[in-house]
Each structure stands twice: as structure tokens, then as C-alpha cells.
From TrEMBL:
Recorded family membership: Belongs to the MoxR family.
Single annotated GO MF: ATP hydrolysis activity
Domain ATPase AAA-3: start-end pairs: 57-190
Organism annotation: Rhizobium leucaenae
Protein name: MoxR-like ATPase
Length: 337
């Protein structure tokens, strides 16, 4: 019996390796297709894609005009997902996102209610400038992100599968913004910081996007294939060493766990969701980089996008001009030594 079991396992392993190798090819094609339209910004493209491959939502933070919206529409096209976009404004109501009931009247004059679905009923929802909407509207979106359904007038409506929200946010110093509550930020698998392009990339942007013909992205996979890859990522084994590294990194970011620098600078740290995000994204990153198993490198590379929006500094640390990134850099350094 033992022998039969071991051959079964090896067959399973072979099947997983074969499907992982196919996933590697698909992800390489996705990367190639995205790079025809989005120049440079490799880490932004990578982290946004990792969030989707790992089955979650991402928050893209950066000043206006850095092609955040273009990246999301490109990803929708390349992944073959039905995409919708909502521009968040201070007067946007929850029903503008979720949908609402309208009254119909038939020929006989009988009246009835009909639910008209809002833009949230998409496989990829781009929530543009999410921090411009009121907390009430933000929470309507964030609730659907968590529960994958909406409830209108006591009736439940399931969202399509897969369902991903890629939200963009301007830096909070800007006028007319409502910061997202901490508990809501935790709903995002990753925070992706979008910076200005490198010189060579900006030159390419100038030359490629101001002529007559602009490259248009084509679908490389479809929604069903994306869900297969997401399932495969959850089946990838993670070594004990990597699990331990994830746990020690996440725990060292919490005050009261024996890390002196954290106790001094961090007001509150990441909860268990941070570790879950790291487990999923480390596997996705391994595939993205062409490997079949996650490594410590993946943990260190993901520390910032996974932890940054799940921690807050003490008043004293902020007064000293420290940033959450500085603290995370210190934690990575400590975990490497």
C-alpha cells in the first residue's frame, strides 16, 4: 500500500509540475503583452499582476498622470476579463457602484421592481481615486470586495468570478480626499507604489504614444484560465524555511513582540492577513520569475507591498520624519542577518 501511495504522490507531483510549467509560459506571455503598452515600471506591473494571480485586490498609490488607469485597462484586456471603471467623486453614492432597484410598469399597468446591476458586477473593477469618495461609498465597495456579493433590499446578488478590484489612490496630502480606514486597507492584498518613470522609459513613452498608431493589448488568456492559475498557486508547496521567514517578518512588525525598533516606532502592526497575503504572493512571484517554489528572496521583495498599508507609525516616529518604508527596510535587514 505504501508503494502505491508513493507512486500516486509522484504522479500528482508530476501533474503539478507540468501545469506549473504551462503557467510559467502563460505568465511570460502576459508579461510580454503588457510590456508592449506599458513601458518600464517593472515592479508596478509585477506587483499588480501578483495581486491578481494570487486572487486578491490591489491598491495603486501615486500622483495623477502615471498611467495607473492605463495599466489596469491593459491588464483587463490581456487577462481577458470583463472590466468596468468607476471614477470616485465626493458625490458618488453606494448605489452608483452596487446598482439599484428601479420600478417597471408593464402594459397592464402592473408595477414591479427590477434590479439594475451597477459597475461592481465585473471581473475586473477599476476604482479610480477611491479616496475621493465619502467613507459610506468606500465601505460599500470594500464590503463587496470582502464578501463577493451585494445585498440590495434584502436580496443577495453574487459577483462574477473571478472578481478583482484594482483601486487607485492619490497621495493623501492632496485636497478633497478621505483617507481609507485602516481596517479597510487590510482588504487589499498588496499596496503598489507608483513612482515617476526612469529617463529611458519616459523617452520611450514620449516617442511611442504621441504618433498616429498606438499599440493595443490583446488577450493572452481568459478568465477560466486565470482561475486555473490561481488554483495552482494555492497548491504550490512552501518550504518550512519560507513559512518561518514570513511568520518572523510579520510578527517582528508588531509592537510588543520583543523587537525594540518596532516598539519604538510602530503604533500598530499587521494582523494575520499580512501573512496570508505573503504566502499567496510569494508563490505567485516565484511563478512570475520563472521558478516552481518560493524563496526567501520573494519574502523580502514582497515585504513592502504586503506590510506598508497594514502598519502605522507612532507620533514620535512621524515627528522624526520616518516613514513606514524605513521601518520595513530595517525589518528586512534584520531578517537577512
Amino acid at each position: 500500500m505504501g508503494m502505491i501511495k508513493s507512486t500516486e504522490t509522484s504522479l500528482d507531483d508530476q501533474a503539478i509540475i507540468a501545469s506549473a510549467e504551462q503557467a510559467l509560459k502563460d505568465i511570460a506571455s502576459i508579461r510580454a503583452e503588457v510590456s508592449k503598452v506599458i513601458f518600464g515600471q517593472e515592479s508596478v506591473v509585477e506587483n499588480t499582476l501578483l495581486a491578481v494571480l494570487a486572487g486578491g485586490h490591489a491598491l495603486l498609490v501615486g500622483v495623477p498622470g502615471l498611467a495607473k488607469t492605463k495599466l489596469v485597462t491593459t491588464l483587463g484586456a490581456v487577462l481577458g476579463l470583463a472590466a468596468n471603471r468607476v471614477q470616485f467623486t465626493p458625490d458618488l453614492m453606494p448605489s452608483d457602484i452596487l446598482g439599484s432597484e428601479v420600478m417597471d410598469q408593464d402594459e397592464t399597468g402592473r408595477r414591479s421592481f427590477r434590479f439594475v446591476k451597477g459597475p461592481v458586477f465585473a471581473q475586473l473593477l477599476m476604482a479610480d481615486e477611491i479616496n475621493r469618495a465619502s467613507p459610506r461609498t468606500q465601505s460599500a465597495l470594500l464590503q463587496s470586495m470582502q464578501e463577493y456579493h451585494v445585498t440590495i433590499a434584502g436580496q443577495r446578488y453574487d459577483l462574477p468570478a473571478p472578481f478583482h478590484v484594482l483601486a487607485t489612490q492619490n497621495p493623501l496630502e492632496q485636497e478633497g480626499t478621505y483617507p481609507l480606514p485602516e481596517a479597510q486597507l487590510d482588504r487589499f492584498l498588496l499596496q503598489v507604489d507608483v513612482g515617476y518613470p526612469e529617463l529611458a522609459d519616459e523617452r520611450k513613452i514620449l516617442l511611442e504614444t504621441t504618433g498616429l498608431g498606438e499599440a493595443t493589448p490583446h488577450a493572452v488568456i481568459d478568465a477560466a484560465r486565470l482561475m486555473e492559475i490561481q488554483k495552482l498557486i494555492r497548491q504550490m508547496p512552501v518550504s518550512d524555511g519560507v513559512v518561518d521567514a514570513i511568520l518572523s517578518l510579520v510578527r517582528s512588525a508588531r509592537p510588543g513582540q520583543g523587537n525594540e525598533a518596532t516598539d519604538k516606532h510602530v503604533a500598530w502592526g499587521p494582523g494575520p492577513r499580512a501573512g496570508q497575503a505573503m504566502m499567496l504572493c510569494a508563490r505567485a512571484r516565484a511563478l512570475y520569475e520563472g521558478r516552481l517554489a518560493p524563496s526567501l528572496d520573494d519574502v523580502h521583495a514582497l515585504a513592502e507591498p504586503v506590510l506598508e498599508h497594514r502598519m502605522a507609525l507612532t507620533f514620535a516616529a512621524r515627528a522624526e520624519g520616518m516613514s513606514v518604508r524605513d521601518v520595513i527596510a530595517g525589518l528586512i535587514k534584520r531578517s537577512r542577518s
